[in-house]
Design goal:
The structure holds 2 protein chains of 2 kinds. Chain A is an alpha/beta fold. Helix content of chain A is about 35%, strand content about 25%. The two termini of chain A are about 40 Å apart. The N terminus of chain A is likely disordered. Chain B has one domain. Helix content of chain B is about 75%, strand content about 0%. In chain B, helix 3 runs antiparallel to helix 7. The chains are: A alpha/beta, B mainly alpha. The interface between A and B is medium-sized, with 36 and 28 residues.
Chain lengths: ~325, ~260
């Protein structure tokens, strides 16, 4: 946690995580179908995708918990299969599901977890104290886990994952299932850690979370990477600037749009919603809006988001 | 800055130590089970049934069953830990998932679980030994060695139970194991009646049960009648333990490394 660690990476050495053609199979099931990734020092990198896209499986391989079935993977310059112990000693992992020790107190959870790492007991004690303060759990320090809310448990999961002062912090769905206030607190803490130069690797299926936190991200679907870039760059490249959304059933669409020149304009349909993506404000967009008004079709003009990128790339909604 | 990760024994010990810390929070309930159940058997069988049972080789019936009860406690404590306890940590609480995100390896984790089961069982053996001693059923100081024997047998029974856990996908499997394996072992391993009087085929079957040689050793220690004849049951116990440990570690590590 101390901000003044010796900084061997400041010289700008290679990527923290590098995957080439990474594959994971379980029998006949291909969970990860040959992906390329490159996570740089100090950035917050996201894996965005629906449930079952292969995000968690990818994380487990990077964590040196699950051996890859194929391809190349280097983490912190090491081979996670051969050097698993050393890789895991330098990673902090916050799993998706609560796997805290329910019989222990908040402080005991931190101390016991710290004991699994190669560090002196005094360092473990000091870090536990520091992290209780950082994650605003000081008052709960001697409480048993059953007395904690879901948000507090997630904060404790994060504190526990930082007990070894990791170089890379891996978070699997850090805010899934939390209420809005708890989510904002977690986001704030993640940004604080990013500010301290900790490299972050997180999965999420929340677009707003990805846009808020990630410097760069990949969009994953069915074990593949569809796109990789900064959130804004992805939006601009794939869907442009502005979205016009019409609520019109597929059968009536042709009649409503009759006579408007839409060739070359990206679009996607989900249920009764048809979205058109515009690189910039345009006459065509204005004509669409005017036509919608004439025909009494509900119409919304808004900024493009990552959700639109996902829709454009997969033809499906993220949370289906 | 970071020290080299701990070796195999360090890793295994940290897993066992974690379980010890958790156990301290419910040691009271655990001790009640350790004392309570053997005490019930001792009173009901030893002093109830014992009134109508003649002396066995110069021992009262209570004296005859006391050493076996020390070791049946070991078997139950270890089996419980290796089935319900370990399965809870594997699936329900996902404790193993959390531990494996640290430098601890799956093999170290399995070894640590086995070690912990042995330690917990040995604590149980010590507790029951005190109880039977208070009843005046422990004539020899050699009886103190039932505690390390309990550690060995505890390791063996935990490893056997972890084989079950390594293969199971629900708590039901543990119930089957208790009913089909552990309960028959409790009844037919020479705790309650001398095997020598049984028909040959019963004796043969009983000798294949891992608890049988352990009970022979325990009786030798508690009665103070240890002899060279006890080398065979000791060898059998060590052999059972080695095989159970290898299979348990292999199965559990395979399951954890997916």
């Amino acid at each position: 946690m101390s901000g003044d660690r010796a900084v061997p990476w400041a010289a700008g050495d290679g990527p923290v995580v590098e995957a080439r053609g990474l594959v994971k199979r379980y029998g006949d099931l291909v969970a990860v179908a040959g992906i390329d990734l490159s996570v740089r020092r100090g950035e917050c990198f996201g894996l965005l995708g629906a449930n079952g896209a292969g995000k968690t499986t990818t994380l487990r391989m990077i964590q040196a918990v699950s051996p890859p079935s194929g391809g190349n993977l280097r983490v912190l310059g090491l081979d996670p299969v051969r050097d698993g112990k050393r890789v895991r000693a330098r990673l902090g992992v916050c799993a998706q599901d609560d796997n805290l020790d329910p019989d222990l107190t908040v402080l005991e959870n931190l101390l016991v977890y710290g004991s699994y790492f190669p560090q002196p007991r005094a360092v473990t004690r000091a870090r536990a104290q520091e992290l209780l303060t950082f994650m605003a759990l000081e008052e709960k320090r001697d409480r048993r886990l059953r007395e904690l809310s879901g948000g507090m448990k997630r904060r404790l999961m994060i504190a526990r994952a930082l007990m070894n002062d990791p170089e890379v912090f891996v978070l699997d769905e850090p805010t899934t299932g939390l209420d809005p206030a708890a989510r904002h607190l977690i986001w704030q803490k993640i940004r604080e850690l990013a500010g301290r130069g900790v490299t972050m690797l997180l999965t999420t299926h929340y677009m707003d979370e990805a846009e808020r936190l990630c410097d760069r991200l990949v969009i994953m679907d069915r074990g593949r990477v569809l796109a990789e870039d900064a959130p804004r760059a992805l939006i601009e490249r794939h869907v442009g600037h502005e979205v016009v959304e019409l609520r019109v059933p597929a059968a009536e669409e042709a009649a409503v749009l009759d006579g408007i020149e839409l060739t070359g304009i990206g679009s996607a349909r989900t249920g009764d919603l048809r979205a058109f993506f515009f690189a910039r404000q345009s006459a065509v967009a204005e004509r669409l809006v005017a036509r919608a008004r004439e025909r009494h079709v509900a119409c919304l003009v808004r900024n493009a988001t990552l959700e639109d990128v996902f829709l454009e790339l997969t033809g499906r909604e993220l949370d289906e | 800055m970071t020290r080299a990760p701990a070796g195999f024994f360090g890793g295994a010990w940290r897993v066992a130590a974690r379980n010890l810390v958790v156990w301290r929070t419910y040691a009271g309930a655990s001790a009640l089970g350790n004392f309570g159940e053997p005490l019930l058997y001792l009173v009901a069988m030893g002093y109830g049934l014992g009134r109508v049972v003649p002396d066995l080789g110069g021992m009262s019936y209570a004296e005859f069953i006391a050493p076996g009860l020390v070791l049946s406690t070991v078997m139950y404590a270890a089996t419980f830990e290796g089935t319900f306890g370990a399965y809870t940590r594997l699936e329900t609480q996902r404790t193993f998932e959390a531990i494996l995100a640290t430098p601890i390896t799956p093999v170290e984790l399995a070894a640590g679980e086995i070690l912990w089961g042995g330690i917990k069982a040995a604590l149980g053996a010590a507790a029951v030994l005190v109880v039977v001693a208070l009843f005046g059923l422990v004539p020899s100081w050699l009886a103190l060695l039932t505690v390390p024997l309990g550690l060995l047998a505890g390791v063996m029974f935990t490893a056997m139970a972890l084989v079950v856990t390594g293969l199971s996908h629900s708590y039901e499997t543990s119930n089957y194991y208790f009913t089909l394996v552990v309960a028959p072992m409790f009844l037919f391993s020479g705790i309650f009646f001398p095997l020598e009087q049984m028909p040959d085929w019963v004796q043969l079957g009983a000798r294949a049960l891992p608890l049988t040689p352990v009970v022979v050793l325990a009786r030798g220690l508690v009665r103070g009648t240890l002899s060279l004849g006890h080398l065979a049951p000791l060898g059998a116990t060590l052999a059972f333990t080695a095989v159970a440990c290898v299979v348990a570690v292999w199965l559990l590590a395979r399951r954890l490394r997916v």
